[in-house]
Amino acid sequence: MPNTLAFSFYSNEFDDFITADLPAKWEICSNCEGEGKHSQHLGAITESERADWSDEELSSYFAGHYNITCECCKGSGKVLVLDLDALDADERKDVQDQLKENEDYARAREAEIRMGY
Ligand SMILES: [Zn+2]
Q1: Structurally, how many domains does the chain consist of?
Q2: Are strands 4-11 and 78-82 parallel, antiparallel or unpaired?
Q3: Are both 62 and 42 inside the same structural domain?
Q4: Is 50 found in the same domain as 84?
Q5: Are both 85 and 117 inside the same structural domain?
Q6: Cα 79 to ligand 1 centre (Å)
Q7: Structural domain span for residue 47
């Protein structure tokens, strides 16, 4: 059973917005690098912070006790992504255009939120 992902995009072939089940593949999650968990919420600990930590806290930190489950892959360490190589050329172009548009939109939204809209 091949993996698929439902994806909405503007199809030049149909001259309309369509949702299709596109071929997808598993990739190592870039957020946690396949670990399924990470400690990014803590940020990097600085020297002065480290001085405040007890030995016990530090060893817990390095043992990964403060790690949280990765929200991108839900702890599985891998994510299902669209397999663009499996699409035919026309479809791939439509999908790539849409991905770029989604990205632009997300970036514009982010900028708006930062400015307090
Ligand atoms: Zn992850």
Answers
A1: 2
A2: unpaired
A3: yes
A4: no
A5: yes
A6: 7
A7: 36-69
Q: Is residue 82 located within the same domain as residue 117? A: yes
CA of 67 to the centre of ligand 1 (A): 12
pLDDT cut 90: percent of the chain above it:
67
Whether 1 and 19 share a structural domain = yes
Res. 117: pLDDT tops 80:
no
How many angstroms separate the alpha carbon of residue 26 from the centre of ligand 1? Answer: 12
69 CA to centre of ligand 1 in angstroms: 8
Rounded Cα gap, residues 114 and 14, in angstroms: 37
pTM assigned to the model:
0.65
pLDDT digits (tens, 9 = 90+) for 58-111: 888 777 777 889 999 999 999 999 999 999 999 999 999 999 999 999 999 999
d(CA 52, CA 46): 10
Q: Residue 59 has what pLDDT? A: 85
Regarding whether 108 and 88 lie in a shared domain, the answer is yes
| Residues with CB in 5 Å of ion ligand 1 | 29, 31-32, 70, 72-73
